[in-house]
Design a protein that fits this description.
It is built from 19 helices and five strands. It has helices spanning 4-21, 26-46, 77-100, 106-122, 126-145, 153-181, 186-203, 213-219, 222-246, 248-251, 254-276, 281-300, 305-336, 352-366, 374-387, 389-413, 427-432, 437-455, 461-469, and strands at residues 52-55, 58-61, 66-68, 71-73, 123-124.
């Protein structure tokens, strides 16, 4: 049986094979990957799930569950919007990878990842999604390694953390089958909760399972890093929401959300402190996104539709902030082979677009208005201020911590050229090493998207409401 869901799984895999064969032609593979991902994202967003097509002499609805190898594939409204978001973000990152040098295998591996992640979102039950996520993590580890020999610490740590989540989900799946036979067993329900929380804590990289983020940001191509931090992470979020929706007895337990919220507070606090003490824009990216993960979990932990909306807004804005910052880091490494503040001292005067990307990306990730990151951060603070004021103060403190890290980098960038470190080129040589025009165009386009999201949040209101309204695991519902 063929339905709309198959296109989202099979076509990226086919395109991955084509881009692998053509991997030496970077422009062709980049545009092909971006075109396929963008087309599938737009198709998923407008896919008529209620429309029937003629197959094998009978009518088949596009959104009808599909049986594959004894497993059911289900594409509901929320999953459709989530997959559209994932594909569109991936398409944008493929376009940025055209000039940001993310590694020779980035496009083929990225498309293969999209195929596996799409299958993970739509497969039922969740146990098989965890298996697909583990396979995807293996490909993602190769992707973030970027073909650079000797740079394996971050990729290895990432692979270990993602793989450790699988046993927790296997145990949870086994316990769920027992719970179906013994629904009155309170101890069994508690053990299922512990196993699931442990698995998602590893996948979401909450403290102390965040040890791979810093090394990956330091060692890996920036766009490849952002791909994992946004595309893979977004699918994990939707898997978490699907599990909470599928098992009503689990989402009815307030302690699940309380634990998620406490983990979020710890993660946000550690991320804010580490970003505040950073002396490298790669660390600002790594620990800024860690803080953002934590703040989203704090919002979800309120167990309200507004909390889910705030978490999804942060997930929506995060790729834009990270993409801007990644482009700045890519230009910085192209010029100095480093993104450390001291190595970039004084370069704002000769490389203004690089400096703008680094500064604006850092501030957007922190949640400073009117940039894209403010979209989710303001929703989180406004919600928590009415429900848990102490948590709202914590989130504001985290925002200031990440912003302070980016501000310290800005101070180095704006140093006068004669105060810069010896690594800086003379003004005459800097004029010869002009910033690439295509990179400038990509930075300008990404900045424009970030400003539109920050100034006109209403553009995402309709799909956001559709996603939130499809989940009913909140208190009192």
């Amino acid at each position: 049986m063929i339905a709309g869901v198959f296109a989202l799984i099979v076509l990226p895999l086919v395109a991955a094979g084509v881009t692998f064969v053509l991997r030496r032609f970077q422009t062709v593979t980049a545009l092909l990957a971006a075109g396929v991902a963008g087309a599938l994202g737009a198709g998923a967003l407008w896919l008529p799930l209620d429309r029937a097509i003629q197959l094998g002499g009978r009518q088949v609805a596009m959104g009808e569950p599909v049986e594959l190898l004894g497993r059911q594939l289900v594409l509901n409204g929320a999953d459709r919007i989530g997959l559209a978001f994932v594909f569109l973000v991936a398409g944008g990152l493929f376009l940025l990878g055209w000039r940001a040098r993310p590694g020779p295998m980035f496009f083929a591996l990225g498309l293969a990842l999209l195929s596996l992640l799409s299958a993970a979102v739509v497969v039922r039950p969740f146990l098989y999604a965890s298996l697909l996520l583990t396979i995807a993590a293996v490909l993602a580890a190769i992707l973030v390694q970027g073909g650079m020999p000797g740079q394996t610490r971050g990729a290895l740590r990432y692979l270990v953390m993602m793989t450790l989540a699988l046993p927790a989900f296997l145990v949870a799946g086994w316990l769920v089958e027992l719970y179906v036979l013994n629904p009155s067993d309170v101890g069994l329900a508690r053990n299922i909760m512990v196993a699931l929380v442990a698995g998602f804590a590893l996948l979401l990289s909450v403290v102390p399972f965040h040890i791979w983020i810093g090394p990956v940001a330091q060692e890996s191509p920036p766009v490849a890093t952002v791909f994992v931090l946004t595309v893979y992470n977004s699918v994990v979020w939707f898997l978490l929401l699907n599990v909470l929706q599928e098992y009503a007895w689990l989402s009815a337990r307030q302690d699940v959300f309380r634990i998620l919220q406490l983990l979020g507070l710890l993660t946000a606090g550690v991320g804010g402190v580490l970003a505040f003490s950073s002396y490298d824009f790669a660390h600002v990216l790594a620990y800024g996104v860690l803080a953002d993960y934590g703040c989203a979990l704090v919002a979800l932990g309120t167990h309200t539709p507004a909390g889910l909306a705030a978490a999804l807004l942060a997930t929506l804005a995060r790729p834009v902030s990270l993409a801007i910052l990644a482009l700045g880091i890519a230009l910085a490494r192209e010029r100095t082979k480093s993104s450390e503040f001291e190595r970039l001292a004084g370069l704002a005067w000769s490389r203004p677009w690089m400096a703008v990307a680094l500064v604006v990306g850092g501030f957007s990730l922190a949640g400073i208005p009117p940039l894209a990151g403010f979209l989710g951060r303001w929703a989180q603070v406004r919600l928590l201020a009415t429900m848990q004021p102490v948590y709202a103060i914590t989130v504001l403190g985290v925002t200031l911590g990440v912003a302070a890290g980016a501000l310290r980098g800005t101070d180095y960038l704006l140093q006068a050229p004669n105060e810069a470190t010896p690594d800086s080129l003379s003004p005459s040589k800097e004029r010869e090493a002009r910033e690439p025009r295509l990179m400038i165009a990509l930075i300008a386009a990404t900045l424009l998207v970030g400003l539109i999201l920050g100034l006109f949040p209403g553009v995402v209101e309709s799909p956001l409401r559709a996603v939130v309204s499809s989940f009913t695991f909140f208190s009192g519902q």
